[in-house]
Every structure is written in C-alpha cells, then in structure tokens.
Design a protein that fits this description.
The protein is of the alpha/beta class and 267 residues long. The chain has one domain: Rossmann fold. The protein contains 6 helices and 9 strands; from the N terminus they run αββββαββαβαβαβα. α1 packs across α2 and α2 crosses α5. The structure holds 8-iodo-guanine.
C-alpha cells in the first residue's frame, strides 16, 4: 500500500524540524504571487529550506513563485514558517500536492495559518488594484477537495472571524470579500466573471480554497488575504497578464510586509 498523504506530511514535518533546528513553530504563512517581496518584513531569517530538500514537496512551476520555506524569528520571538511559493491545482500534480505544505505545517505544530494570494477583483466599483482584501469566505469551483471519504468537515468559518477582527484593529479600513477559486490555468471569460459577480464573489483566483479546507480539517485557525492585482476579465477593457501581478506585488510589498509583521506579532 502506498503511504497516505497524512503520513507523508508527518515525515515532511520531521525533516522540516530537523532542517530548521526547531521543534515547533507558531505560525505558517503561504506567500502567493505578488506577496513574496513582503516576506522580508516579517522577521529575521533563521534558515531557508528549499522545497526539494523535504519529502513529497514539489518545486513550484510558476516564475516568481519562489520555492522554499523560510524559517523566521519575529521581533516578539515567535517562529514563523514562510512558504515562498505554493503548488497549484493547475500544475496537474493532484490535490494532495496542493495541500502538502499546509498538512506539513500542521504536523510540525503550527496552529495558525495565513494564506495570501493575488487575485482578480470582481468589484471594480469599490476595489482598486493594489488593495489587500480580507477573505471572509470562499466559493470552491475547483471541482476538487483535499478530503476523501466520510469526513464531513464544518466550513461555517473557514477564515477566522477573530483573526479578521485582529487585522482590522491594525487596518480598520480593510475591506472583506468572498474569494472564488477556479482550477485555472486560464483566466476567466467575461461571461464567467459576470457569473461570479452574480454568485456573490468578490475576488477570483486559482489557490487558497483547498489549502483552507485542509487547514480546517487539521484544526488550524486561518487568516486569508487577497491582493487585488487586476480587474476580472472584461471589467476593464484590457487583457490580463501575469507580469502585472508581479509588478503590483513589487509596488505594494512594503505595505503588505508591515501588515503581516504586525499581524504575526499580535497572534
Ligand atoms: I493575480 O483574474 C490573478 N489570479 N482565476 N482570475 C483568476 N486568477 C487570477 C486572476 C484572475 N488574477
């Protein structure tokens, strides 16, 4: 029998503890595209571990997505695991590969998970490119789920109300929104964007929801933040491209980094 995804995460957690020289960690952060430059503000780097040094991890396929775990000590002495890059469902490696980092972090003792992403904005009436938006809930249109079998996990509060309130103590004006995920890798058609607006979505992307589900299964408290890097297809008259995502990230890195550093120190 091949080993199940949870035992593989236990093995990866043991390798991570040993590579990091630490027994446990307070928080993990997954840095989406556009967020990697913000990682520098979170704390002092203790060690960097390439994904390829840890069992069952894959190097991310996308340029600009990094590919390592940075172990950081924050100014208040907390230890954070910063995932610089993630595996996406559209890479075709399967849902277990997508959530392996989250399961590994949970197995290594993390109790709080911060999921960041870059996303298309579905509400150009109120959203500007470069705005962070707190994820209040999600709509999973990936067609997949990290859980198989009769484990009926409650998803009433995937994205912690408590953590959202804590972020709003730091940035009271931050908007909240519902994040919709498709498998990708195509961006949407304008008709799909109109559909998502009708369905109650506020942001659209290709990540986060499967990791959020796996995190709730593991009992983690989750904070989700999207960086709006483009209006959804058909909302602006311009075609979408990946380079603008990275550019918005570079332009907002300082603001996002300061925000995350403050959040991590108040957990
Ligand atoms: I950044 O407009 C980013 N990621 N599906 N649609 C989808 N993913 C995205 C988008 C977008 N922008």
């Amino acid at each position: 029998m091949t080993k199940d995804a949870y035992s593989l995460a236990d093995e990866a957690a043991a390798a991570l503890r040993s590579a990091a020289g630490l027994d446990t960690f307070d928080v993990a952060l997954v840095m989406g595209s556009g967020w990697v430059p913000a990682a520098d503000a979170i704390g002092e780097t203790v060690r960097e571990i390439p994904f390829t040094d840890l069992p069952s991890f894959r190097a991310p396929a996308v340029a600009g997505h990094g590919g390592k775990i940075r172990v950081v000590r924050t100014s208040s002495g907390r230890h954070a695991l910063i995932f610089l890059g993630r595996t996406h469902l559209y890479e075709g490696l399967g849902v277990d590969a997508v959530v392996h980092g989250v399961r590994t972090a949970a197995a290594a003792g993390v109790r709080t998970l911060v999921l960041t992403n870059a996303a298309g904005g579905l509400r150009p009436e109120t959203q500007n490119v470069g705005d962070p938006v707190l994820i209040s809930d999600h709509i999973n249109l990936t067609g997949d789920n990290p859980i198989t079998g009769t484990t009926f996990i409650d998803l009433t509060e995937v994205y912690s109300r408590r953590l959202r309130a804590l972020v709003r103590e730091i940035e009271p004006a931050l908007a909240e929104g519902v994040y919709v995920a498709f498998r990708g890798p195509t961006y949407e058609t304008p008709a799909e964007i109109r559909m998502l607006r009708t369905l109650g979505g506020d942001m659209v992307g290709m990540s986060t929801v499967l990791e959020g589900i796996a995190a709730r299964e593991a009992g983690l408290e989750v904070l989700g933040i999207s960086l709006v890097t483009n209006p959804g297809a058909g909302l602006s008259g311009e075609p979408l491209n990946h380079e603008e995502v990275l550019e918005v990230g570079r332009a907002t890195a300082a603001r996002m980094g300061v925000l995350l550093a403050k959040v991590v120190d108040r957990l």
